[in-house]
């Protein structure tokens, strides 16, 4: 009999690819660390529920995500900027303005915390990299536009 006509085994492993881990340092803000720990707690609850319900696909997906967040927790480096720093550092909020008077405010955070829609950019993003070490009055160029740093904090 052809294998095409046989029933798949119910105990066959479900192959879900691992989530890629960034090669960059895993810098996080204190809030970012709380976010990771909350994600781990939520996933542990979901894993327990999926195991109870014998939902193999959900179990595999949640276990994969739990491995990712556990790895991120193990490598997390909490970084808090010096409040007296006069140059841009990780964890700071920076306001930049272009020649047209358009202002943009960004908080530089860890990769897993980044959310541009809420004003949070990753420390490895081109904008953050251009900002590091600069102070108020300095100019950076991003996408062929010049932006002046008007405030840091």
Please characterize this protein's 3D structure.
- With 153 residues, the protein is α/β, with parallel strands linked by helices.
- 32% of the residues lie in helices and 21% in strands.
- It has three helices and seven strands; from the N terminus they run βααββββαββ.
- A five-stranded mixed sheet has the order 5-4-3-7-6. A two-stranded parallel ribbon has the order 1-2.
- α1 runs antiparallel to α2.
- The longest helix has 23 residues.
- The N and C termini lie far apart (71 Å).
Salient structural properties:
153 residues, alpha/beta, two-stranded parallel sheet, 3 helices, 21% strand
DSSP helix count? 3
* N-end to C-end Cα span: 71 Å
Sheet having the most strands: 5 strands, mixed
Large-scale geometry: elongated
Sketch the topology as an H/E string, one letter per element.
Answer: EHHEEEEHEE
**Overall pLDDT metric:** 91
The low-confidence parts are none
Compute the CA-based radius of gyration: 22 Å
- Beta-strand content estimate: 15-25%
The percentage helix is: 25-40%
Q: Give me the count of strands.
A: 7
Main sheet: strand order: 5-4-3-7-6
Structural class: alpha/beta
Could you provide a short overview of the structure?
This protein has 153 residues and is α/β, with parallel strands linked by helices.
